[in-house]
Q: What sequence folds into this?
C-alpha cells in the first residue's frame, strides 16, 4: 500500500505544532522535538489510511483532526491514498470565532 504526501508540508506542520501547541508534550507519544511530532503525525496518517483502504471509498474517514493539525485523505486508486496535512493557525492562541447570519439573498 502506498501513502502519498508532501514531505515539506508535514515537516512544516510538525514544526508549527512543536512551536505553538503548548500541550504537545502531553501527547501519548511524548514527543521531544518537531521530528518526533512529524513521526507521530505520519504514524497517525498511516494508521487511518490503512483503516480507510479496507473500506469502500464512500465510507472513508475523509478528514481527521487532533492536536492542532488536520489530515485530509483521498483515494488515489486501489492500493494508494493521498494525505494532506493542515494546521490550525490559531493553536496556542486565543480563539476568536465569528458568528455571521447569512441567508439565500446574500449569495
A:
Amino acid at each position: 500500500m502506498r501513502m502519498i504526501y508532501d514531505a515539506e508540508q508535514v515537516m512544516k506542520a510538525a514544526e508549527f505544532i512543536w512551536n505553538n501547541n503548548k500541550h504537545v508534550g502531553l501527547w501519548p507519544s511524548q514527543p521531544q522535538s518537531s521530528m518526533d511530532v512529524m513521526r507521530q503525525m505520519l504514524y497517525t496518517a498511516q494508521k487511518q489510511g490503512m483503516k480507510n483502504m479496507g473500506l469502500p471509498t464512500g465510507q472513508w474517514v475523509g478528514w481527521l483532526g487532533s492536536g492542532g493539525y488536520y489530515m485530509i485523505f483521498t483515494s488515489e486508486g486501489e492500493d494508494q491514498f493521498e494525505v494532506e496535512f493542515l494546521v490550525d493557525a490559531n493553536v496556542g492562541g486565543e480563539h476568536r470565532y465569528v458568528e455571521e447570519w447569512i441567508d439565500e439573498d446574500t449569495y
Helices lie at 7-20, 34-53. The longest helix spans residues 34-53. The chain has one domain: 2-87.
